[in-house]
Here is the input.
Amino acid sequence: MNVVNIINKAINDGTTRFAFELLPPLKGDGTEGIFRAVENVTAYDPAYINITYHREGLKQTIRPDGRTEWHSVRRRPGTVGIAAAIQKKYGIVTVPHLICGGLSQYDIEDALIDMDFLGLQNVLALRGDCSQNEKVFMPHPQGHSHAVELVRQIAAMNRGEFVDGEVEICHHSRFSIGVAGYPEVHADAISAEDDLLRLKEKIDAGAEYIVTQMFFDNSKFFDFEKRCRQIGINVPIIPGLKPLVNERQLSSLPDIFSISIPDAFRHEITKCGGDKSKVKEVGLEWTITQARELKAAGVPVLHFYTMSRTENIARIAKEVF
Here is the structure.
């Protein structure tokens, strides 16, 4: 089933459902951990599950002569495989992520063909992060520089058009394409206005829904949604939420994701005096309050960023859905 159909059904039914994001297992790990993460929340009927895609990293080694060598390594492969395994085992729709970083157009096409063969009908199209040794994003020489180009490639494949050209008689894929949106503006954007125009380009290219970067102030989402509608972006917008689990995230999340932490939330966390269990509880309660307000506003799906720790999501789902 296509995710956009799940979202539209929730809109038509006047209900709010939830989705969440998992990381593929580290290379060498089996499926036990990720299956447990899914089973923590199956009782609450998740709408779908996103599976992240991770580009190559760098590993440092010291040669016998003392010189340093850097090697490219992939620590979390298996996005497509684990998405297919979860969908088959639990009957829950999965959404593999696909990125521009480190991939050629042929790599992307091969991944999409694998997804289609495995019955995966959804994809979240992202530019992806810089490599560890990059100050600015550098695309693969035969790849894409921006997510809109990736969206165009997926939409073209749905029409039967491949990297090498159109295939006259072919099976047509039916991917539902999601993209990312940034209530507090993408870190590389020229301006908030330009960021919205780039988002509209992705929708015009064939994306059917938007998942937002995390935010901790719902007014940021409502303002973003309003500005999207004003420039003609009319697809569903799914808010992204993340339960804060430790005090370090007060600084690390803004640094990594270019987001802000409300002063009131920061104050509540610092009042915990470093008590880890209290910090986690305050983070959960803040997210529950956000979720209830967004649900009351009629959003069709809430998307939770979990880093594969789903016990928190089970608690939220029990109290909100």
In short: The longest strand covers residues 17-22. Residues 104 and 142 are 5 Å apart (CA to CA).
